[in-house]
């Protein structure tokens, strides 16, 4: 029984627990108020009850058949009764701790549902709903919570600027059955492309448009950006949300963004060293034309020292070494090796060590041997960096392969 019951019961009237026959008892002492000890018996190990434990009913609980402590066995004049049994009536209305009000505040024992089980049930139901699939029709869209494509018509711009609304618009674009339905949704953004690029929510809708649509279907997206001029394009590349839209344009519509690419190349070196602009330049190096790539790499050769020492510029530099032609790669690597200990600094950077790995793997013998010579002279510096230790492992493997080839 709980402490509130034991405090009101007569200890001398309590009957011993019915134990299993093989259970042994050990003597012990119980401290009582006033400094008195009484002899008692303590089972060792804990006894296993084979029958309910009768407990005397406190005086002010006489006649009650429902108590707040569900599962507690009480001694009643007619025998033992378990609180919460079927047929129990309402509890007392005198407002003490055992009233219905107290029961409402404290869940009854034995009926508290485990929090983890509720969460597991909720997650299971969510997973079951996520497994419901459709063929792009209205039913599948409603399952996702976005509704059919027609449900966003006429309010695309308003929904695109809302956290949940932008998801509805994206689902509507993805689930549209025909290109005409997609065009009807996308054209509601006409004249608002720049504002959508700068919006924390609408930029996702614009990215979905670029991913799902052809460039010839909605040319106004590129036109509204280029009409703002070179400064606006580079401003978008430096923006936390605008840079995402430019990346999608370079990735999915590379043949229709020549004007945008030329504007980015005009400030390419500065963008390579920018927090957000470097991601745009990486996409331009990967998805741009050969001529655009050559222009960027030629500019990098002239500013090899500045780019090689910049943590943010290390990523575009690695992408340039990886995507360049053999001739352009050799020229860029020669410019990096010409600067004292620059290759060592790159090897100790998160993105720079990837460029060093590419140099060791793809460059011809003259550039590769010079890189190995410079790196082996600074092994102490490389050992102090986790990325430098990766380069040391690459050097060891490369030297082993070279030795094996020489032995053959």
Name the strands of the widest sheet in spatial order. 1-2
Shape: elongated
How big is the Rg? 38 Å
Class based on secondary structure composition and strand pairing? mainly alpha
Q: In total, how many beta strands?
A: 4
End-to-end span in angstroms?
85 Å
Mean pLDDT: 76
What is the strand content? 5-15%
Q: What letter string, H or E per element, gives the SSE order?
A: HEEEEHHHHHHHHHHHHHHHHHHHHHHH
List keywords for this structure.
two-stranded antiparallel ribbon; elongated; 408 residues; mainly alpha; 6% strand
Tell me what the structure shows.
The chain is mostly helical. Helix content is 55%, strand content 6%. It is built from 24 helices and 4 strands. The chain has helices spanning 3-6, 100-105, 115-130, 138-144, 156-160, 163-175, 179-186, 193-197, 202-212, 220-226, 230-237, 242-252, 258-266, 268-272, 277-287, 290-302, 304-308, 314-323, 326-337, 342-347, 352-362, 365-377, 379-383, 386-407; strands spanning 25-32, 36-43, 73-76, 79-82. Strands 1-2 form a two-stranded antiparallel sheet. The protein has a two-stranded antiparallel sheet with strand order 3-4. Strand 1 (25-32) and strand 2 form a beta hairpin. Helix 16 runs parallel beside helix 19 (326-337). The radius of gyration is 38 Å and the shape is elongated. It starts with a helix and ends with a helix. The model is unreliable at 1-25 and 67-145 (pLDDT under 50).
């Amino acid at each position: 029984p709980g402490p509130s019951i034991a405090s009101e019961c007569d200890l001398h009237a309590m009957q011993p627990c019915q134990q299993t026959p093989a259970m042994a008892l050990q003597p012990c002492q119980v401290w009582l108020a006033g400094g008195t000890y009484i002899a008692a018996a303590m089972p060792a190990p804990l006894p296993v009850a084979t029958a309910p434990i009768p407990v005397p009913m406190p005086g002010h609980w006489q006649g009650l058949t429902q108590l707040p402590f569900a599962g507690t066995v009480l001694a009643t004049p007619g025998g033992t009764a378990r609180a919460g049994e079927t047929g129990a009536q309402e509890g007392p209305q005198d407002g003490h701790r055992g009233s219905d009000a107290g029961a409402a505040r404290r869940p009854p024992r034995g009926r508290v549902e485990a929090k983890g089980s509720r969460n597991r049930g909720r997650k299971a139901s969510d997973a079951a709903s996520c497994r419901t699939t459709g063929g792009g029709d209205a039913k599948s869209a409603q399952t996702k919570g976005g509704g059919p494509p027609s449900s966003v018509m006429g309010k695309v711009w308003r929904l695109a600027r809302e956290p949940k609304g932008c998801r509805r618009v994206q689902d509507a674009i993805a689930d549209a059955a025909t290109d005409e339905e997609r065009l009807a949704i996308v054209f509601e953004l006409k004249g608002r492309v720049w504002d959508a690029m700068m919006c924390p929510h609408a930029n996702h809708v614009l990215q979905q448009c670029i991913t799902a649509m052809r460039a010839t279907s909605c040319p106004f997206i590129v036109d509204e950006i280029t009409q703002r001029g070179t400064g606006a394009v580079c401003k978008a590349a430096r923006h936390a949300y605008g840079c995402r839209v430019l990346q999608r344009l370079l990735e999915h519509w590379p043949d229709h963004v020549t004007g945008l690419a030329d504007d980015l190349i005009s400030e390419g070196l500065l963008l390579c060293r920018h927090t957000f602009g470097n991601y745009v330049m990486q996409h331009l190096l990967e998805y741009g034309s050969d001529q655009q790539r050559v222009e960027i790499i030629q500019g990098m050769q002239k500013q090899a020292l500045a780019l090689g020492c910049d943590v943010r510029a290390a990523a575009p530099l690695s992408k340039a070494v990886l995507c360049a032609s053999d001739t352009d790669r050799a020229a860029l690597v020669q410019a990096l090796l010409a600067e004292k200990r620059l290759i060592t600094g790159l090897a100790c950077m998160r993105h720079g060590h990837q460029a060093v790995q590419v140099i060791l793997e793809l460059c011809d013998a003259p550039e590769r041997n010079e890189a190995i010579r410079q790196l082996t002279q600074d092994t102490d510096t490389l050992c102090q960096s986790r990325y430098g230790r990766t380069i040391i492992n690459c050097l060891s493997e490369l030297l082993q392969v070279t030795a094996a080839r020489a032995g053959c």
